[in-house]
TrEMBL record, chain A:
Protein name: KDP operon transcriptional regulatory protein kdpE
GO terms of biological process kind: positive regulation of DNA-templated transcription
Pfam families xref list: Response_reg (PF00072), Trans_reg_C (PF00486)
Lineage: Bacteria, Pseudomonadati, Pseudomonadota, Alphaproteobacteria, Caulobacterales
4-aspartylphosphate: modified positions: D51
Organism: Asticcacaulis biprosthecium C19
Length: 225, 896
């Protein structure tokens, strides 16, 4: 597994390299966006760790540019705690984000999730999804919870399938609205909220201690991995 | 025919219907006006009005009697009984106590419906408006419904008809436009016989004294019948007009006759009659009508009073619903016919006055004759000037009084002749006497140029006389030897009169042109200086400097709630006018319809519907009246200043927002780089220490202990830096809330997960009371609040402590309470815990977040930015509670 680190701070690169090589990942390094692109094309890494504050290009622009020709998982590292930045990065095509300072454990967990997604996306289309007592038959469009039939409305079903496509990955409000209601329907956050509550009720999912659908305040939802 | 229009015919026009519905009372802002309308006094208008008001009052309507003239009649008094009555205002007018309707009290009281008797009443001097109907307008504008009463003779357009019929002139009139705009007209009608009986029984109030005879004349049976007919017809016309509106809205074409009427207006007293006549004609045939004023050469020679009368006449036409047109013309008849022909007029109304004998003798035609002779296809209505004298129009004082009025000018004319005579005398033996005629001529021209036509005529006559006396032999007598001098004198007189009058007229023109030029120059200077000035204060100073010398006035300007130029104003009366103008955005004060007794004229400054301030002009000479021409200039000036203020304000706004956005950018950059510079080394250090700790088996024990301590301090430092940056964002006002609807439990669930690692063995319990509505919040920030409060609770409980989260609804808020079973707060510090850097040193572990005291301050900042409340208190059973509330999202219903 090859991981590309695009980060202008040498110390952070060194820290990341130390953490990653200890887990037997091969590490590639780039200090600028330009080097990053060269490395991406030449070495075909399995995952990219990207710092948003690069000296030669805005990180968001970099994600959009890369997404035009590559589906490599990108995890964003950011010093800013601005939700708007995270949402923009996710909607540009990043797979996940980490706010500095972060613990090595958290970083490794996120990397694992992202790599698994990539592997699944590359594999054959999922027919049956099963996790934590929830079972979906995607070809028959049926849902069972702990062995019992669950009746979902079409909207709730679409919402659930959008979430389970990428367990553990944060989907922004806009992305979910887009997946459920189609394009240009990004202004109805409270519909999304209401349908999510209904879905949670049917899945007996208490928002105070969620089992399936996790809230990412200010950003979106993520399906428990 | 166009297929589209054919298709549309007969189909309701939604816009027109909507407009009708809105004017029908759908409009919330404006009150509804109901007029109880009658042919004369005594028909029972007040009685009907009070009866209806009682009925509404019984139905629970908030009715108030503003003013009702009961004249001591028991039936009326019985009806007033039990209805709330607004106290009248007592005005002291030259020692006489006058009671008037108290408009301010009515506006303050704001009843749903108010009764204001006698719509046409003229208010005592010193009231806000000269007329009561203007008070009513203000009540309606403030959303109060009004009942009022009106007699037919008080209607502006019928005023002269009724006067001609009864011989009683009333000065108190109500414009037809307000009558037509009333929401409802109730015609109160009784047969004349019955009215006469009531009169005989003393049930009708008749003013005593001088008016008694007029009243006797008024209440003749024949008159009452005619008045009744006029009132019925007027009320019927209004119903017709309403039907037309309705028909038009329903797509049925208006029953218009296709008429269009033009009335010629001048400075004479006949014009007001012409205008009223035209108004009635127009109403009957539902035709649009225009009042035309021809600005010929004669306009220049009109006295200021006559010009004012022209303006009055034109204003009357506007008040009656006509449109006003002014044309500059040389040949009157041709211009009028050309204008009428081009604009599709079908009828022409004009006055006819007998031509003076010399004109008739020379076969000259008057304007009416010329028009009748030349107009093709135009229906011409002429009214004879001598029909009825309108006493409301002041007559032009006779010419001779003008002579007396300017004795100085005439004295100068005599002096000029004397000087001419004295200059010639030493030479009369040397030069032929005819030459001196030129000397006198020069004198006449000078007098004409300086003092106008009257003195010029005097100088001409005196010149001939003195020429004869001093220069024609025999000297010092009016006789002359040579008979040919008779011709000389005649020619001299004629020539000097002609030259004198021509010169006088020319110099008048020059003076008027100069006056016009001065005006133009003033406006030009003002706008040039205004555009050069920066800021409202500078503009105001410039405006005052331009206006004060030009009109000899004191200039005051108010803008943005304060006076920006001029001497301070502290007269409460003037401030009252100022307040009214600021509130109503209409001209008021000196010689206007509103508060005319004020010494200043107050003009609102409005541009693009924005209210920018008030301009007041107070003449230094307190008795001077502003002419209507001056008022026009003032209005232009006001709009110039308003435009300048608008520019200044936009400029200031743009500058402020530019500075603001620069600042915001700077702050953002600063915060971002601070975050980066602080967090990067912390990340590196944390990473390094945790890497080292992974190798703890290879390290000496002391080193591991040190590293563990270092790790703990690092974690604390990281939290502190995060909090510091958050606090910086909150206190710099840069906290942009990203509001979204959330169920509070979702946020709490996320927060509980986030502190999972820290809570250790402590229990976190949640209690939700019933179903909670959604709250509109910034999810990430409220999550931070919950995390901070939970961390705070964890820090102050033992390892096996219990933390409880309570969620409940309280009216339009959701309340969240985080309680712990720790030692609680030190009494009296409940409020201080939210202060920045507050730490409770008396407790073993401090109440701040990791010792920085910032965590709770951050909570307070965030909750207050949401419009919520946050406070702390000790539980009766021990431990502390932190409580905060959040406003409920108003558009979303309750959800599980």
């Amino acid at each position: 597994m090859k991981i590309l680190i695009i980060e202008d701070e040498g110390d952070i690169r060194r820290y990341l390299r130390a953490t990653l090589t200890a887990q037997d990942y091969a590490v590639l390094e780039a200090a600028t966006a330009k080097e990053g692109v060269q490395n991406l094309t030449l070495n075909q890494p399995d995952l990219v760790l990207l710092d948003l504050g690069l000296p030669d290009q805005d990180g968001q622009d970099f994600i959009r540019a890369v997404r035009e020709w590559s589906q490599v998982p990108i995890i964003v590292l950011s010093a800013r705690e601005q939700e708007a930045d995270k949402i923009e990065a996710l909607e540009s095509g990043a797979d996940d984000y980490l706010t500095k300072p972060f613990a090595p454990r958290e970083l490794l967990a996120r990397i694992k999730v992202a790599l698994r997604h990539a592997a699944r996306d590359a594999g054959p289309r999922m027919e049956i999804f099963e996790r934590n007592g929830l079972r979906l038959d995607l070809s028959a469009r049926r849902v069972w919870l702990d062995g019992e039939d669950v009746h979902l409305t079409p909207i709730e079903y679409r919402l659930l399938t959008a979430l389970i496509q990428h367990p553990g990955k944060v989907l922004t409000h806009a992305q979910l609205l887009n997946a459920v209601w189609g394009r240009r329907s990004t202004e109805q956050n409270h519909y999304l909220r209401i349908h999510t509550q209904h879905l949670r009720e049917k899945l007996k999912d208490d928002p105070l201690s969620p089992r399936f659908i996790l809230t990412e305040p200010g950003i979106g939802y993520r399906f428990a991995d | 025919m166009n297929p589209d229009t054919k298709h549309n015919e007969g189909r309701p026009d939604p816009d027109k219907l909507l407009a009708l519905v809105t004017s029908d009372g759908g409009e919330d802002a404006r009150g509804r006006l109901k007029i109880f309308f009658g042919a004369s006094a005594g028909v029972g208008k007040t009685f009907a009005m009070l009866s209806e008001a009682r009925r509404l009052h019984k139905d629970g309507r908030d009715v108030e009697i503003g003013i009702v003239e009961h004249h001591g009649r028991p039936e009326t008094l019985a009806l007033i009984e039990g209805l709330p009555v607004l106290p009248c205002k007592v005005i002291d007018h030259r020692g006489v106590q006058v009671t008037e309707f108290d408009l301010d009290a009515a506006l303050a009281r704001r009843p749903s419906l108010i009764l204001v008797d006698e719509y046409a009443h003229t208010n005592a001097p010193g009231s806000r408006h000269p007329k009561r109907w203007q008070d009513v307008e203000e009540l309606l504008d403030n959303g109060i419904d009004v009942f009022t009463t009106l007699n037919v003779q008080h209607l502006e357009s019928l005023n002269d008809v009724v006067a001609k019929l009864t011989g009683v002139w009333v000065k108190e009139t109500v414009p037809d436009t307000v009558f037509d705009a009333a929401d409802e007209i109730a015609l109160i009608d009784i047969p004349p016989d019955e009215l006469l009986q009531r009169l005989a029984a003393g049930k009708v109030y008749v003013a005593d004294g001088a008016h008694q005879r007029a009243a006797d004349n008024f209440f003749k049976k024949a008159n009452l019948g005619r008045l009744r007919e006029i009132a019925l017809r007027r009320a019927a016309e209004r119903v017709d007009a309403q039907n037309d509106q309705l028909n038009a809205a329903h797509g049925q074409s208006e029953v218009a006759t296709g008429d269009k009427i033009l009335v010629l207006v001048g400075a004479d007293s006949l014009s007001s009659r012409l205008i009223r006549h035209t108004k009635r004609m127009a109403d009957r045939s539902r035709a649009p009508w225009f009042a035309l004023y021809l600005q010929t050469d004669r306009h220049e020679t009109l006295s200021p009073k006559a010009r004012l009368r022209v303006e009055h006449n034109l204003r009357l036409a506007e008040k009656l619903g006509g449109r006003v047109v002014r044309l500059n013309a040389g040949a009157a008849a041709a211009t009028i016919l050309d204008y009428a022909g081009r604009n599709g007029f079908t009828r022409l109304v004009l006055g006819h006055s007998r031509q003076p004998w010399w004109r008739r003798a020379t076969g000259q035609q008057g304007l009416s004759q010329k028009l009748i002779a030349q107009a093709a296809g135009l229906e011409i209505t002429t009214l004879n000037a001598d029909a009825v004298a309108d006493p409301t129009v002041e007559r032009e004082p006779p010419r001779w009084s003008a002579l007396v009025a300017r004795p100085r000018d005439h004295l100068m004319a005599v002096l000029a002749v004397a000087v001419c005579t004295l200059m010639g005398l030493p030479f009369r033996h040397l030069i032929d006497p005819d030459s001196f005629i030129m000397l006198y001529m020069t004198g006449v021209v000078i007098v004409a140029a300086r003092f106008g036509i009257g003195p010029a005529v005097l100088a001409s006559v005196l010149s001939v006389a003195t020429f004869n006396w001093f220069y024609i032999e025999p000297y010092y007598s009016f006789t002359f030897d040579n008979i040919s001098y008779a011709v000389t004198f005649a020619v001299m007189l004629a020539t000097s009169l002609i030259v004198g009058s021509l010169t006088a007229r020319l110099s008048l023109h020059v003076r008027l042109a100069r006056q016009g030029e001065t005006e133009t120059r003033l406006l030009y200077d003002l706008s040039r200086h205004l555009s050069a000035a920066r800021g409202v204060e500078a503009m105001a100073t410039v405006a005052a400097r331009c206006l004060e010398p030009a009109f000899d006035v004191e200039v005051r300007l108010w803008s943005g709630g304060r006076q920006v130029t001029g001497p301070a104003e502290d007269d409460p009366r003037e401030l009252g006018v100022l307040h009214w103008v600021m509130h109503n955005h209409q001209i008021a004060g000196r010689h206007t319809d509103t508060l005319p007794s004020a010494s200043g004229l107050y003009l609102p400054l409005t541009a693009e519907a924005a209210d920018l301030g008030v301009l007041s002009l107070t003449p230094r000479d307190r008795v001077r009246q502003f002419t209507s021409a001056e008022q026009l200039v003032f209005e232009t000036v006001a709009s110039l200043i308003a435009g300048a203020f608008q520019r200044a304000r936009q400029g200031a706004d743009a500058e402020a927002s530019r500075v603001e956005s620069e600042n915001e950018k700077l702050r953002n950059v600063l915060l971002a780089s601070l975050s980066h510079d602080l967090k990067t080394p912390l990340t590196v250090m944390g990473g390094a220490v945790s890497s080292l700790l992974k190798m703890r088996k290879k390290l000496p024990r002391e080193a591991v202990d040190e590293l563990t301590a270092l790790w703990g301090q690092l974690t604390r430092l990281q939290k502190f830096v995060s909090n510091l940056l958050r606090m910086a964002a909150i206190t710099s006002g840069q906290l942009k809330l990203n509001f979204e609807p959330y169920l509070i439990q979702e946020i709490a669930g996320a927060a509980i997960q986030r502190i999972e690692a820290q809570k250790g063995a402590r229990q976190i319990r949640t209690v939700t009371a019933g179903q909670l509505p959604m709250v509109t919040i910034d999810g990430a920030l409220i999550e931070q609040v919950l995390i901070n409060l939970l961390e705070n609770a964890i820090a102050h409980t033992t390892a096996d402590g219990i933390i409880t989260l309570n969620f409940e609804t309280d009216a339009d808020r959701v309340r969240v309470r985080i309680s712990d079973d720790g030692p609680g707060l030190k009494p009296g510090t409940e409020d201080q815990v939210f202060d920045k850097f507050h730490t409770d040193n008396d407790l073993k572990s401090d109440r701040g977040n990791s010792g920085t005291g910032l965590g709770l301050a951050i909570c307070k900042g965030i909750v207050e930015a949401h419009g919520g409340l946050i406070y702390a208190k000790n539980n009766p059973t021990g431990g502390a509670s932190f409580i905060f509330t959040l406003p409920v999202a108003n558009t979303i219903g309750r959800s599980a």
